[in-house]
Amino acid sequence: xxxxxxxxxxxxxxxxxxxxxxxxxxxxxxxxxxxxxxxxxxxxxxxxxxxxxxxxxxxxxxxxxxxxxxxxxxxxxxxxxxxxxxxxxxxxxxxxxxxxxxxxxxxxxxxxxxxxxxxxxxxxxxxxxxxxxxxxxxxxxxxxxxxxxxxxxxxxxxxxxxxxxxxxxxxxxxxxxxxxxxxxxxxxxxxxxxxxxxxxxxxxxxxxxxxxxxxxxxxxxxxxxxxxxxxxxxxxxxxxxxxxxxxxxxxxxxxxxxxxxxxxxxxxxxxxxxxxxxxxxxxxxxxxxxxxxxxxxxxxxxxxxxxxxxxxxxxxxxxxxxxxxxxxxxxxxxxxxxxxxxxxxxxxxxxxxxxxxxxxxxxxxxxxxxxxxxxxxxxxxxxxxxxxxxxxxxxxxxxxxxxxxxxxxxxxxxx
Length: 415
Description:
The protein has helices spanning 18-34, 40-51, 55-83, 85-105, 109-126, 128-139, 143-154, 157-195, 226-258, 264-271, 274-288, 294-313, 319-345, 350-405, 408-412. By secondary structure, the protein is mostly helical. It has two domains: 13-202, Growth Hormone, Chain: A (Up-down Bundle); 226-408, MFS general substrate transporter like domains (Growth Hormone, Chain: A, Up-down Bundle), CATH 1.20.1250.
């Protein structure tokens, strides 16, 4: 919809090879996700057993972190647009390390929860949205394939870090595991950010569609031109709903499957299909993305999630197929989350837009565990799945409405 304003700097020309940057961000994303968002999947029960703190409060630390990440995201996006991703990602490593040290040393529940506030700020500055914004700032429209490649790494975060966390807990306890993860951030992630990612020149933050609205300090005021406001709202709403659905399903999937009279071992085996389906769909999308506009990726992802959740709700006999559809859908949705804003709004405002989109998405993820638990406790798994299916259909309709708003030439061509 827009192209960068004349004279916009092109730091990609001075950056290391795309493969080097993507691989660096891929490794850091695995460790950043594994030591924050996925941390309590393994550590929650050991923390409860050791401290006696209520499980709800212990697990609530992640929700508190996601809330903080959401509130910080607009500022993160502006900072990446203005300074580049290198300093912001470096700060994220410091914040995550500081928060993890706080967890390890927490003598009481309030200190534990306060540490999650720090971790949340690190999540906002260091997870997918910040990494996507960094790639967009570096490579402009050429970042689409790099973003797809990065999500392949991210898909292995739980696969790598859950066993790693379990091993550390068994040898040094949960507090020792937090300290080791903090050391990893300081000894591995921070140097990678500082010495591999290129230093980028500061640049003014430009509003979408080439309208520059820069404050005297050089920071953007963050307003959207009227012609793009509706597109932004539809896109942000679809991404937010998709994030909420994936969070609820990831937390409650085992309970839902066991309610179908599926034994725990079989439920775990079925749930394990989601990860490979995500990675496979992302790999396929990476190779075919050059042939279509990312709006089709987003539409295909939302429809696939709706089909998967709807099949679970309808109790169709092939549960594995439903989970493969669901996994493939959330897999390519994560790619569209990074590539579609880049194509729609242009590289000159991409990082700022990503920060604005990330805010409601993180807030929805923060609320999703409690909302899902409330639905499960009040109405049971069938009604919960019905609500999730209706919500997934709504997300697909929002993407369809977004498609209808785009110019015909935009919809029919690849980015």
